[in-house]
Amino acid sequence: MSEPDTRAIKEAVNQDFIRYDQVKKSHTYRLAENDADEFDTDYQIQTFDFGRYLNGNARDRKVFAEEFGAAVQDIGFSVLTGHGVDKSLYDEMNDRTEELFNGTSMKDKMRYRAKRFGSVSQGYFPIRETSDIHPDLVEGWVWCRRAFNMPQKRFGEFRPEDFWPDIRYEPIFRELATAHEKLFKPITQAMFEGLGCDPHSYDKKLTDTNFGLRLNYYPPMKQVGGDSGAGRLLGHEDVDLFTILPAAKVSGLQVWNHHNQKWVRLDAPEGSIIINTGDYMQRISNDRLPSTSHRVGKPLDGSHLDTARISFPLAVYVWEEEILEVLPGLGKPKYDPVKAITFHTKSTSKFYGDDYAVESPLEKS
Predict the structure, then answer these.
(1) Are 276 and 236 in contact (CB under 8 A)?
(2) Which of 33, 157, 186, 204 is deepest in the core (most CB within 10 A)?
(3) Domain ranges of the chain
């Protein structure tokens, strides 16, 4: 691809692409880290023991939901310990992710170049090409439920070779997807209960639902031209209900604090998971649960220069034919009902091009 315009990258802001957003996002921030950015060193994103909700009695669950819900409503992010997933699985995923990216030839990677499956762009994203907006200094690989040998009734015969450069990786990463799938409903239930809504409103929608498991490999910036102005991952909001992100071994995650227009560096404890709400959730919560901006920038210890960073977030979706509408009890709806595939593809067409958007009738299939 052509050489990036360093000045354009450094000055680009989210409002340049606001026409694609399907929920209210009135704030303005630079997409890539900039010397003029301000950081909030006082705000602490809260950490909670999710075991209180998973294993507690009705009162324990109620108190947890109130506290967790208030934290997520405040900034859209929270950190959970006690979630039941063994830290050793995350250590294994870290090693296997590095192995996948460094052990697969570019020729084989490009055989799986990302394309749309339903709502989600699934497959391999080369470095600097994860988005049409501006280059990111990260390689990515995304797999939806279709790519795993998991319960699903809507597709034909499962063929791992259709999605994986080496089919031995499918059961390895399926273990991570399966472990996190067990958390989809309880995390949603806690959020809904914290809003004062029926905690089981989405139980049916989240049974064998779709998701996007994304592996990110950030090579050392000395190797990829960190002087280009590009960030490791540009500022953005997730389009999903929420994202489950195991704490990375290397720092860099930055979260936008809309209260004071500053960035918060988030370094979560090893073995914990970071939860952040996305556009689906902001829409159905009538703006109560914000889709918070975040990015991956340069850690204070300078490790980005010579150390690779690895992460493996899992985005929780509903299937394309589901209707996204404001939950009962949250006041007059600010948004009309919309089919998930229309909402999702209109929003993400800012990353993948205008022809990515799909119009679909509102009626359920």
Answers:
(1) no
(2) 33
(3) 6-354
Q: Which amino acid is at 158?
A: F
* Residue 62 per-residue DSSP state: H
Query: In which band, very low, low, confident or very high, does the pLDDT at 302 lie, cut at 50, 70 and 90?
Result: confident
Q: Which two tokens stand for residue 192?
A: 């809904």
Please state which CATH number belongs to domain 6-354: 2.60.120.330
345 exposure class (CB count in 10 Å sphere: 0-12, 13-18, 19+): buried
pTM of this prediction?
0.95
Per-residue pLDDT reduced to its tens digit, 200-250: 999 999 999 999 999 999 999 876 665 555 678 889 999 999 999 999 999
Residue 167: phi and psi, rounded to 5, are: -65, -10
Helix (H, G, I), strand (E, B) or coil at 216: strand
Q: Are strands 47-49 and 77-81 parallel, antiparallel or unpaired?
A: parallel
Nearest to 234 by CA among 350, 142, 343, 110: 350
Backbone angles phi, psi at 324, to 5 degrees: -95, 115
Pairing assessment for the beta strands 47-49 and 338-339 based on DSSP bridges:
unpaired
Per the document, the length of the chain is 365
Q: pLDDT per residue over 57-68, tens digit each?
A: 999 999 999 999
- Token duo for residue 18: 């606001």
CA-nearest of 279, 354, 340, 290 to 120 is: 340
- Where do we find the tokens 């990260």? 138
83 CB contacts (<8 Å, ≥6 apart)?
50, 51, 54, 183, 272, 273
For residue 334, give the nearest of 281, 280, 284, 277 by alpha carbon: 284
